[in-house]
């Protein structure tokens, strides 16, 4: 009883002290306006159980494109307009270049030594440079074209055998893309691939940053009582074992001379051995980088293809126009090669429109303020979290006509691209922390969609019409279609 009383008084006094501190600090700062906050939880009740990008957009309609919210102990600013996104991602890019850490990311990502969640600084700069110049450069991505084309041949064969039967689009594509990422990373389809996919699913579900324990980081016991700590420890152990097994398998193959091409693990090991880096890289750093490659490389692309197929089946006129473009372009050529994809302008427009309405990361990865700065005249103090709602920007009616409708034609004859300079369309983010995997991700999306539409016609299973398609989204930082799309492929003879 005594211990309980002591514990309760301890929590209550820490909270009072914390609230007093927050209140005092916010009085002296000109913070952005925002929805009314409840004691202790702040605005948690307004986003709990919702999809954060949608809840934030709805709140922004009432409170404006820059809003201050309090999520438990976390003080955050939500940006919902392209004009202010530019202030965050360009004007104040360096001041806001940190990432938040959670207990989960710290533990599972080997002390946040990956790229996506590494704090801004020399280590992050070094690793991002290695990613951009060595791992994900256009040349390196091209060197994996044989792997992609070989995996796709198998996939097309699978679709031919499934002709007339419904297939789960997301599941099938995720497996295919993960095969490609595995082979590019480790040279062969690794036995641990399934376990790795399961890990990623679980980690993305847990590490949203919106768990109660993450919202009250000073109260470490919440991690224990909520069971999150033990879940995360277990996840970390599983991941470490998966990587150790992969590593062993990889070493064995290299020893036996079974693999000659340089895969991504070879690249990192070569750089590690060459030395001369300001921050010598360790095996744990390499493991953390592979979490980014798998998390960034698999789901983002398969989610995009899933949404593109969903929109195509809902818009038969777009499907028909795309079929026509692809079938005309490759008529009589026998095979679609990656190098021939650039001429498919309507395909590019369909992919852009899909990413505009369904960016896999609708809230860009959050940033954290490292130097006090001002956005729209409001103070952004050090440690304040900044969320840019990329989806709200790419569906902003001030920038897009008929913003919520799927109309790929809007991207025909425009120079709007996703390279991070158009703040009303930034599915890969913008600024220093922008995605380094655009080429790797886009080539899979383009090649897969081109092949799926060249060789097959697609329809919904009997009894379903396009108006029956459930467009709900999954919860978590990556937003996929909640109810998996099932479609029936029918072989189309290209040269007929
Ligand atoms: C359709 C495919 C993809 C989409 C839509 C996508 C989207 C994004 C977005 C929105 C961000 C956050 C950018 C920001 O905060 O400004 C990001 C960061 C990142 N992405 Fe991607 N991504 C894709 C593919 C990939 C691939 C294939 C990889 C690696 C193999 C990758 C690795 C990363 C990494 C490492 C970061 C963190 C960069 C940093 O913090 O410096 N992504 N991505």
TrEMBL record:
Domain of life per record: Eukaryota
GO cellular component: membrane
Annotated compartments: Membrane
Cofactor: heme
GO terms under biological process: sesquiterpene biosynthetic process
InterPro entries: Cyt_P450 (IPR001128), Cyt_P450_CS (IPR017972), Cyt_P450_E_grp-I (IPR002401), Cyt_P450_sf (IPR036396)
SUPFAM superfamilies xrefs: Cytochrome P450 (SSF48264)
Residues annotated to bind heme: 435
Coiled coil feature spans: none
Bilayer disposition of the protein: Single-pass membrane protein
Record protein name field: Cytochrome P450
GO function terms (MF aspect): heme binding; iron ion binding; monooxygenase activity; oxidoreductase activity, acting on paired donors, with incorporation or reduction of molecular oxygen
